Amino acid sequence: MSEVNREIESSHGREDFVSSGLKEKIPLPCLKRALDLSFSLLLLLAVSPLFILILLAIFLEHLLLGRPWAPLFYAEPRMSQGRQFHFLKFNIFKPQVIEALHEKGVFIHTKYLEWDGTSMTRVGRILQRVYLDELPQMLNVLRGDLSLVGPRPVNLEVYEEALKRGVTNWQILRSGLTGPYQSHKGQGLGRWDQYRLDQEYANFLRSHSGWEVLCLDLGIIARTLRVLAKAQGL
Question: Which 3-state string (H, E, C) describes 128-162?
Fold first, then answer.
């Protein structure tokens, strides 16, 4: 079984999932977009000194590794509302590791690089441990690639495999930094539970007012912060 199929199949709860069959994109309520813009802009302004220090630390480590021109950001192709975009992170990987994978022409699964324990730089390991490696994704939110709340974006492989199985969440919803599934981390939920929760979120967006969506998003963000405080990750 391929890595993609393992990701799709890897959980209990599949028998409870029923595809909605919906393919029409759900527009973002104005209040939801206003929350995205205000939150991401204020956060980026607040942490701008830290942002600059992180970039400087990454550059200095690249300099020590003999790769001064290695990129400070890592952009990975992901899917959001049926469209591919560049999902931004601080570049936490050793330049030579990424260069070698590019030369082989293979798809780079960054999660596997994070798990292997040898592919990240010293600065990268620190950033990943305290969840700061994904701070540049606030730029994705500002640009409209992402929302604060929505299904976590996946790569094209997983997206296409999900569509074959009737999972249209990434086709109809704008992807998010966090979502209903991520806000329930640590409760024993599996991959198909994620699809079900994201589908329920899509149905909520279709049938409720902007104010109700705003309140739901704020609740999901609050629960996510509690998950992060417990170091359970996203």
Answer: HHCCCCCCCHHHHHHHCCCEEECCCCECHHHHHHH
Q: How confident is the model over 148-158, as pLDDT tens digits?
A: 999 999 999 89
Q: Record the tokens describing residue 94, joined without a space.
A: 């050793």
Per-residue 3-state assignment (H helix, E strand, C coil) for 52-67: HHHHHHHHHHHHHCCC
Task: Note the pLDDT tens digit of each residue in 78-122.
Answer: 999 999 999 999 999 998 887 877 777 666 667 777 777 788 899
User: What is the torsion angle, in degrees rounded to the nearest 10, for the CA atoms of residue 193, residue 194, residue 195 and residue 201?
Assistant: 110
Interior/surface letters 154-183, b for 16+ CB within 10 angstroms, e for the rest = bbebbbebbbeeebbbbbbbbbbbbbbbbb
CA distance 133 to 126: 9
Report how far residue 15's alpha carbon sits from residue 20's, in angstroms, rounded to the nearest whole number. Answer: 14
Query: Under DSSP, is residue 76 helix (H, G, I), strand (E, B) or coil?
Result: strand
User: Three-class SS of residue 77?
Assistant: strand
What distance, in Å, lies between the first and last C-alpha atoms of the chain? 25
> Is residue 197 over pLDDT 80?
yes
Q: CA–CA separation, 214 vs 191, rounded Å?
A: 25
